[in-house]
């Protein structure tokens, strides 16, 4: 059964995204107004990486006809007014019309972009990461996602501006999607308290409860934080691993300020184990990112100051010290602000001795 040929009408048209354009934020970061239609399969084509995308520092995805093969992707509906902007985004590709089939066997005539067959190559890790995010975001078949994961990247380790732009949009949307609620605890039956486990650094009027570790998670650096000029710290689930950090107790009234500070992260609840073997149910923040990158020296230093300040285990501090930084030598205003407080507290402490 055919759906109406939207692409040929003066109104909305359908577009089939099969690579980075499966991720909604890839399109919205370019000011395209898109509406999700469905996940669909294109028969008789295969996915290839070829040529060189200068902005992505690696080979670009394209599709080539191949009987017996198929490609999964996402059907988006766009306004006709957005077609020129989409054409500019895909300026090195050629548009054509194809028929794709949704999971409920509906056939849609869609616009798609291809490039002439050139020498095959490897995509950058950044480009591959965006493709995988789009595939997972739209729940493509697990077997197809594994095929995408198996694509070898070119190992490019530099910065990619378009990747940072997309990830800023992505983390903003992820933050807006977060609906996690903190667990409150009463203090003197009058003031609600919020417990936070900090795997990196935390500032504000807080009470330190204890040094803790979070079981079955691991610590790494990923994505890009503009205010810190480098990768940000994150934790992800990993059985058998653990992350050390600090539990802070805050007034419930401070939650909004904390959420704003961590607005690029998702708020979640975790159970952490204290050195006194007590389990604490805490709010923490999760960055939806898997591409490992390097932090600025400034950010890494703040993390290490916090780890030493609270006397985390020496081997864990050495683990934190082992992370390479990106060598950024410019000014980081957030770092300056934090260090002013650190130096002030050190001065006050020395004066009382």
UniProtKB/TrEMBL annotation:
- Membrane-spanning segments: none
EC? 4.3.2.9
What are the GO MF terms of this UniProt record?
gamma-glutamylcyclotransferase activity
Under the heading Pfam families, the entry gives:
AIG2_2 (PF13772)
Q: Which SUPFAM superfamilies match?
A: Gamma-glutamyl cyclotransferase-like
For the protein in the UniProt heading, the enzyme class is lyase
User: Which residues does the entry assign to the active site, renumbered to this chain?
Assistant: 90
Q: Which key words tag this protein in UniProt?
A: Lyase
Where is substrate annotated to bind? 15-20, 127
Keyword Metal-binding among UniProt keywords: no
Q: Any idea what this protein is called?
A: gamma-glutamylcyclotransferase
